[in-house]
Each structure stands twice: as C-alpha cells, then as structure tokens.
Design goal:
By secondary structure, the chain is mainly alpha-helical. It is built from 4 helices and no strands.
Length: 109
C-alpha cells in the first residue's frame, strides 16, 4: 500500500472502534432511559438522541469515505484529510465529554 494511503487505512480501522465505543455503551443508554427530565438542563433526551445519531452518521460517512479512497473511487486530497481529522476529533471530544461527565457524576459528594 502506498504511504499516502496509510492515513485512510488507519482511519478505516480506528473510526469503527470509536463508533462502537460511542454508540454501544450499554450503561450510558440505560442511564439515559432512567433519567428524569428534571435531572438535566441542556442534554435532554431529544438533544442526546439527535446528537448521538448525528455523530454516528458522521462516523459512518467518514468510514465510507476512507473505504472509497482506498478503493480508488475518490482521490486523495488535503481538504479530505482535514475533514476526516475533524470527524476523528468530533468522536474523541464526544468520548472525552461523556467520560468526564460520568466521572464527575460518580465522584460527586
């Protein structure tokens, strides 16, 4: 594989793992189901639903883009790499916020 495609090959492996980590966290989904509307101010069920679905869709599109570049259907471009870095950053920030909220909630006095 040419060195310039290693970026896409790596992301084609990393993005599905991030998608699984974000979407299939059973404890997180169970906690959302049991939370009452008065427990939250901003992240209501509707907002969490749309944000989670949007992040999942963006990750799936990122995976598809990587596969299309690897298959030769899309050309390699610096702007495309920037977009995929943004997709990766979005998923990592989502994980950071979720982990931080969970740790703060669990360790609260």
């Amino acid at each position: 594989m040419p060195a310039d495609l290693d970026f896409y090959a790596t992301l084609a492996q990393v993005l599905p793992v991030l998608l699984l980590t974000i979407v299939w966290d059973r404890d997180y989904l169970d906690e959302l189901r049991t939370r009452t509307p008065t427990d939250v101010r901003f992240w209501t069920r509707n907002r969490v639903r749309w944000y989670s679905l949007t992040v999942a869709a963006v990750l799936i599109l990122g995976i598809a883009t990587c596969l299309l570049v690897l298959a030769g259907a899309l050309p390699d471009a610096s702007w495309l790499r920037g977009v995929l870095i943004g997709v990766t950053a979005l998923s990592l920030l989502t994980l950071l916020v979720r982990i931080s909220a969970k740790v703060i909630h669990v360790t609260a006095p």
